[in-house]
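Homework help board

Subject: predicted structure for assignment chain

Our instructor gave us this sequence and asked us to write out the predicted structure in token form, then describe one feature. I got the tokens but I'm not sure how to describe them. Can anyone check?
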Amino acid sequence: MSKVLIVMSAADVWERTDGSAYPTGYWAEEVAAPHEKFVEAGYTVDFASPGGVLQPLDLHSADPEIAGADSAHYVAHAEKALREFGPLLKLDEVDIDDYVAVVLPGGHGPVVDLYQDADLGRLLTKADAAGKIIGAVCHGPAGLLSAVDANGDWLFAGRAMTAFTDEEEELFGTAEGAPWLLASRLRELGARHSGGPAYQQHNVRDGNLFTGQNPASSATLATDMIAALA
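My token output:
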């Protein structure tokens, strides 16, 4: 049976420019919707993170007024999937050759750790070279920034993608005080970033790279990846 790897952040706080600590964690829908879609399609799904650390749930993703009417379903599914999987794999021990695809969900954690994680960078570089399917949603595309060569050149420069927009960050109330904004950083480093209406589903494919703008794009991300794998 083919396997898919979901790489999660290990961060539980996001340090702001004023020195305050903003609590963060995984966004339930962005973990649960891809997991659900891949399992339904017959794939085995593994979870990994830096050090094998399981970050907490971002409580915003459990609030139906923020995350929508299906938030309870996604929270329950994500918690059950993570509990049944058991301890997360340590990212530095993962062999990407064991997987047909890798998924990077969000929550703000990826802008804390995954964007500069050397183990993730090596994994993504090898995956891309092999033509494996790579998916990232919301703040997950921050993890793509880890893939740089010996000269510091970014692997995904010039590629079309989307991610949580600066407008969405402002509407969410987290733009002010952020050390950097994801969509702006992606463009600065050479990505061809596009964004759709705030908090509406928007997905972009560029070859083997699949990205989604926000939580509402999570299920479509997985569906598109599954179609490509088929």
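Reply (TA_rk): Your tokens look well-formed. For the description, you could write something like this. The chain has one domain: 3-229. That's the kind of observation they're looking for.
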